[in-house]
């Protein structure tokens, strides 16, 4: 089912469920803590449905998480076709490994950082940006599930030293994540010189059946890697970038040092 069709279905069911309870838009808005104009905009499709709205609707209408589930389905359907196999792998992986030479990996990004990154494409509609931010934050929930994957992330020191207002919050977030036993963050120091990781970001997922899936990103699209040769190459490059990165304790100390440059929060 296409994402737009799913969104239309959600709007239709929201109107029907609200009407079945006997609530008008004003009363429903009051109980969900949204304005009547917002309720009207959501139900007519002039405002995007987001997870906070779907969550409150499920609570007030006692629908058992129906609208949240439908919205997540719509968000997944709106992802590019080339990205969906990676999303499937990421959602069930036992281990995830990420490397990015210029940015904090998506699974470790704050909402503000993610929004800023997604706005790099200044032709992207704001509604699409917000949908992508919501989807990225939803993906991050695997870090807090009962049996989370082991996550090993490597990033370049230069990605941490960007002088931007969003970085203080992002660095503090990385430090909190690094306290989790299943999250391992490593930083390649700026004086490491040239290394293979400068060729671009990569990701690897170890699935429950022992198989692996790789992912490469570029300016236009992404590529899911499943071939034996391709995975062997990504594995070798991962070992290379991991080898030039600092141990976790030293990496955390470096992140704290950079965070201190932003002053007290």
Characterization of this structure:
Helix content is 51%, strand content 13%. The chain has 265 residues and is of the alpha/beta class. It folds into 2 domains: 1-76, 434 Repressor (Amino-terminal Domain), CATH 1.10.260.40; 82-108 and 139-261, Endonuclease Chain A (Endonuclease, Chain A, 2-Layer Sandwich). A 6-stranded mixed sheet has the order 3-2-1-4-5-6, with helices on both faces. Helix 4 runs antiparallel to helix 5 (66-77) and helix 7 (111-118) crosses helix 8 (126-139). The chain is elongated and about 65 Å long. The model has no long low-confidence stretch (mean pLDDT 88).
Strand content: 5-15%
Shape: elongated
Domain count, please report it.
2
CATH superfamily of the largest domain: Endonuclease Chain A
Helix percent reads 40-55%
Q: Class of the largest domain in CATH?
A: Alpha Beta
The CATH architecture assignment of the largest domain turns out to be 2-Layer Sandwich
> Strand arrangement, largest sheet?
3-2-1-4-5-6
Biggest sheet features? 6 strands, mixed
Structural class: alpha/beta
Tally of separate helices:
12
Average pLDDT reading: 88
Q: How far do the termini sit from each other?
A: 45 Å
Please state the CA-atom Rg, rounded to the nearest Å: 21 Å
What order do the helices and strands come in, and which of them pair?
Blueprint: H1 3-20, H2 25-32, H3 36-44, H4 51-61, H5 66-77, H6 84-92, E1 95-100, H7 111-118, H8 126-139, E2 150-156, H9 157-160, H10 167-178, E3 183-188, E4 202-206, E5 212-217, E6 222-225, H11 228-244, H12 248-260
Parallel strand pairs: 1-2, 2-3
Antiparallel strand pairs: 1-4, 4-5, 5-6
């Amino acid at each position: 089912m296409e994402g737009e069709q799913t969104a239309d279905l959600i709007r239709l069911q929201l109107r029907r469920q609200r009407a079945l309870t006997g609530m008008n838009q004003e009363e429903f808005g009051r109980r969900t803590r949204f304005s009547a104009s917002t309720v009207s905009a959501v139900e007519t499709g002039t405002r995007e449905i987001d997870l906070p709205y779907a969550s409150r609707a499920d609570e007030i209408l006692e629908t058992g998480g129906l609208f949240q589930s439908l919205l997540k389905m719509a968000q997944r359907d709106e992802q590019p076709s080339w990205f969906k196999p990676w999303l499937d792998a990421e959602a069930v992986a036992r281990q995830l490994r990420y490397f990015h030479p210029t940015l904090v990996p998506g699974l470790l990004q704050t909402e503000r950082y993610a929004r800023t990154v997604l706005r790099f494409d200044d032709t992207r509609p704001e509604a699409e940006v917000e949908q992508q931010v919501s989807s990225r934050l939803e993906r991050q929930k695997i870090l807090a599930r009962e049996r989370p994957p082991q996550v090993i992330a490597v990033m370049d020191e230069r990605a941490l030293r960007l002088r931007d207002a969003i970085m203080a919050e992002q660095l503090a977030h990385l430090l909190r994540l690094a306290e989790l036993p299943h999250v391992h963050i490593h930083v390649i120091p700026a004086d490491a010189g040239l290394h293979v990781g400068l060729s671009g970001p990569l990701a690897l997922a170890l699935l429950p059946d022992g198989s692996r899936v790789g992912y490469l990103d570029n300016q236009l699209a992404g590529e899911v890697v499943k071939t034996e040769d391709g995975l062997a190459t990504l594995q070798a490059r991962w070992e290379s970038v991991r080898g030039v990165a600092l141990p976790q304790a030293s990496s955390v100390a470096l992140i704290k040092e950079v965070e201190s440059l932003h002053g007290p929060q």
